[in-house]
């Protein structure tokens, strides 16, 4: 029977080694909270690590005591003796009250300080870049109010600069999460009362390295919640400024007849919901398609590693969105309708050709995207 | 209904079905809760397997997004409301009156009503599977997603079903408080009550304060969904965040409503199988009360990312960490109960030791999550999923298994097979850690919760596969448990009245326990009264009164009818929007029928009946010799 006690130890030692190893840094660096690339994620991780190490200690004590009990105080078969009926011990009760109180006091001080410092509002900071994050079922809209541009799905930000974000949702609750850069902030829907949007959130974050990081929706928002991914593209500041200037230019005009036909198809079928100009100020039901030819994914999930793949993914998405990303089946909500039966294969080809032209010449960092 | 044979203590002969439909006996109501809870445990478990099967590989097609959300919402709702609480109520009903030397709960009729409200509430929620509009907003039912505009009428079944079963739970809470305060045997002072009774008392007080906010929230939800209300609808000026507050003001104490009785069960099992009294009894009682008290002041830790600001987050974060202190006190007292004892590793004890390890792991991640800056990363990821399964399975489910192995002989008159019990434990325990340990890392590696699939290439493939294998191992454990139950009923030997060398009063009653529990109410002379008397050389606990006629309540079909009427009303209100407005008449019929049954209950004078003294004496003589 003693053997069983040892076996349990043997089961846990490797588990904790694994835990310690993993906390030292692990996971895919594009998406892991354990490989922070922004100050928010770094500060969160510091608290995660401190608390985890303390808790390893607590667990170690408990498991040690339990192991001693299970090895030393087993009843032998047939042993009917009655052990001493101990009532308790005030000293022990004091010890295992006082030590946890000390631990949580230390943790609380660290926590409260960090909670307030992470909540610093940069909305009046002239050095901060202001953005608005508007969540929709099941895509993300990113507006740059001071720069006068709008984009979707791929959020471009300059490295090292504070990003002051305002978040809300137009339908259900979503949550903005870029594990490698920052923890979550909910995007809430809210009524407009006296011109003020209820429940809108403000928070700040930044990126400390150039690259592409994966973002996710972290609040259950419907059938395609799992597929509501986005990307954060972190560029050096001068390159970011070039991107902004390029985005402000009018949408490129088609030069081939095929693309021109595609433009016609777009105007007939897509324009009611989608804008092509990044400077388009209207609140449209669908994502802004400026720079769609550079998107790192199509619809947040379909691969777009190179132009051929991107074109194929675009076509797949336009033909049957429901097969890629389940749309709501309740009437009245905004959906992307299927065009497989509405448009001929040629018209679809032309449309994709036209859309592929919609790109600026500042490409996202390729290597990091993988 | 169940087909097991249960000794019927009554005088009249009735069919088993009618007997159980009308019973107000706490021991039979315990059976009803137990079997119903177990059936839903299997249903919820199948849902869990579907979830894990879907997530075994990336971009899997076992379930689509909508079906996954349905299974997910029903798994959570079922496991919390229709499994965890009812199974604990089963053990409370079976044990608490015996532990305090009472003849029944204070309000036996209300007790039956509580059960039937739960039964029909759970049934109503599950009717949704037949209509095609299944809840898909998660067990938390966040608005606006829970509105028919987004998810159809599924969440109305959730709201209506929880309203019914929640009413039953509230009544149970009141009933147990009244019973424990008023119906203790002579000499059973508060500080002589067994810990399971204490935790039941405190959990029942929690129920009385925690369920009204849920009831209020659910009514607002039902108005919004079915009657054009706008409490949570931002388009009409409402605010969905209010629902989150109402839900978690209920939801966090709810965690303790299912955790505290679990603590109580382990506090019974560990002393008996260490053959030592509970270490630090007063500290255990105070710790229980403290956990309950602080449990009401921490709900915002479920909402750190809602955007309530650093002050709210900081205050609620610190408040949450405080709960670690009384919980730690409990853990160390359990360990020191075993320290210096003679530990017998029976199945019940295995679950208890397994609980300590598992629950401590769930507890320490709880402290980690209480720190808002860290929680911004954990929140709504698989880290959270891992944490709450560590505390809810490691706490509540392990406790129900421990309690089942421990109290089975008192509840059903037979001993569960110990070998099968140990196989059950090891399969379930290893499977559990295989499933959930790795999920901590999945969360930190960037996998958010409640997703029906994930893209390949983000490092989620292998951990998810491991997790799925673990889930199937747990399922094997549950199958062994089912085999054990069947085997015990078919082949098990009748259990003696005191198979474990018990310490508390329930083991001083004969098995099967007579309808009136105690022929003469016992006289309690200390903590662990039965153990004290055995140590003093007495066979049983001395009586506090002479034999007399015993006043017992009559069975009644009215609780069943009342709950059935409310069930019909609830369905009618949903059908009127989902199918046709004329179903409103069905709803009104249900309401009228409810009122009629309530009227009948008020005007029918039922003074109960008396078990004659001679019969009591006769049965008592038989019981003692057994």
From TrEMBL, chain B:
Q: Which Pfam families match?
A: COX1
- Asked whether the UniProt record includes Membrane among its keywords, one would answer yes
Q: Which UniProt keywords apply?
A: Cell membrane, Copper, Electron transport, Heme, Iron, Membrane, Metal-binding, Respiratory chain, Translocase, Transmembrane, Transmembrane helix, Transport
Q: What is its EC number?
A: 7.1.1.9
Tell me what reaction this enzyme catalyses.
4 Fe(II)-[cytochrome c] + O2 + 8 H(+)(in) = 4 Fe(III)-[cytochrome c] + 2 H2O + 4 H(+)(out)
Annotated localization: Cell membrane
What the entry lists under InterPro entries is as follows:
Cyt_c_oxase-like_su1_dom, Cyt_c_oxase-like_su1_sf, Cyt_C_Oxase_1, Cyt_c_Oxase_su1_BS, Cyt_c_oxidase_su1_bac
The pathway is:
Energy metabolism; oxidative phosphorylation
Annotated membrane topology is: Multi-pass membrane protein
Provide GO CC annotations from the record. Answer: plasma membrane
Question: TM spans, by residue?
Answer: 32-51, 71-96, 108-129, 157-183, 195-222, 242-266, 278-299, 311-336, 348-371, 383-408, 420-445, 465-490, 557-576, 582-604
Domain named Cytochrome oxidase subunit I profile: residues = 12-525
**Alphabetical GO biological process terms:** electron transport coupled proton transport; oxidative phosphorylation; respiratory electron transport chain
Q: Name one GO molecular function term.
A: cytochrome-c oxidase activity
Question: Which enzyme type, at the first EC level?
Answer: translocase
Main localisation, per the record?
Answer: membrane
Q: What is the similarity comment for this entry?
A: Belongs to the heme-copper respiratory oxidase family.
Function recorded in the entry: Cytochrome c oxidase is the component of the respiratory chain that catalyzes the reduction of oxygen to water. Subunits 1-3 form the functional core of the enzyme complex. CO I is the catalytic subunit of the enzyme. Electrons originating in cytochrome c are transferred via the copper A center of subunit 2 and heme A of subunit 1 to the bimetallic center formed by heme A3 and copper B.
NCBIfam families associated with the record: CtaD_CoxA
Name-wise, this protein is Cytochrome c oxidase subunit 1
Organism, by scientific name, is Hydrogenibacillus schlegelii (Bacillus schlegelii)
* Lineage, broadest ranks: Bacteria, Bacillati, Bacillota, Bacilli, Bacillales
